[in-house]
Amino acid sequence: MFIAIQHDIHDPARFQQCAERVFPLPEELLVHQFLPADDLSQAVCLYEAPSLARLRDYLEPVLGDASTQRYFAVAEEPAIGLPARQLAGA
Fold first, then answer.
1. Quick check: 37 and 43 in contact, CB under 8 A?
2. In 3D, which of 68, 48, 63 has the Cα closest to residue 6?
3. What are the residues whose beta carbons fall under 8 Å from the beta carbon of 52, sequence distance 6 or more?
4. Euclidean distance between CA atoms 60 and 65, whole angstroms
5. CA 1, 58, 23, 35 torsion: positive or negative?
6. Where is 4: in which H helix or E strand?
């Protein structure tokens, strides 16, 4: 499934450090896009994962309180511009 995340970034420098520790991702998680705001106060990511819970459970401990995340499963039928799936079963 495709999952979008909106990150409200509280500390851009710390968020960047935390985000670097996210990689390498476990093989069942894949990030397709990372779109930061020009002032680094927020970002949007598009992931592919087997479930929203799996992605959230992996990211939250790493990102800590440098940011607050809002996750949602993407409605694929009306979505525009989704990439081709790359993970089996996601």
1. yes
2. 68
3. 1, 3, 71, 72, 73
4. 9
5. positive
6. strand 2-9
pLDDT score for 88 = 84
d(C-alpha 34, C-alpha 79), whole Å: 17
Q: Which helix (H) or strand (E) holds 79?
A: none
Q: pLDDT value at position 90? A: 74
Both tokens of 63, joined, read: 């990102």
Query: pLDDT tens across 55-75, in order?
Result: 999 999 999 999 999 999 999
Looking at the chain, list the stretches that DSSP marks H as alpha helix, in order from N- to C-terminal side.
12-21, 52-63
Tokens of 52: 């929203």
Supply the angle between the helices 52-63 and 12-21 in degrees, to the nearest 10.
120
